[in-house]
Amino acid sequence: MDAYQQADVTEPREQISMAEVHDCFTPTELVLMEDLGFSERGEAWRDELEGAFNLDGELPINPDGGLKSFGHPIGASGLRMLFECWLQFRGEASERQLDAPRLGMTHNLGGRPGSCVSFISIVGAERG
Prior knowledge:
Layout: H1 2-6, H2 12-15, E1 18-20, H3 26-35, H4 44-49, H5 77-90, E2 103-110, E3 117-124
Parallel strand pairs: 1-2
Antiparallel strand pairs: 2-3
């Protein structure tokens, strides 16, 4: 994946410390976890049930509750995902604050079936 190459990410599940993924539907989120390399093919459901993607899990996914918790405002969802990374990196995410996230990823989809586009950003927090 181009975004991983540009960010020198070779082991996404180990190198990324939080992710905001486009969870417009539960099956979409599970497919994305596999497509993004967070789970092996056919195993995202198991990883989810085992707590790997919880706030205190190995790789917190959608610490803010995901798209549906915000009403999924089309067009603004991707910006809101980046805002969550910013809050996390600044230590301002209140009760959902993660312990010193280093590298965050956002994934957003848009468009109609057959003509969708996808945007992935990988952002980091500089630690001194």
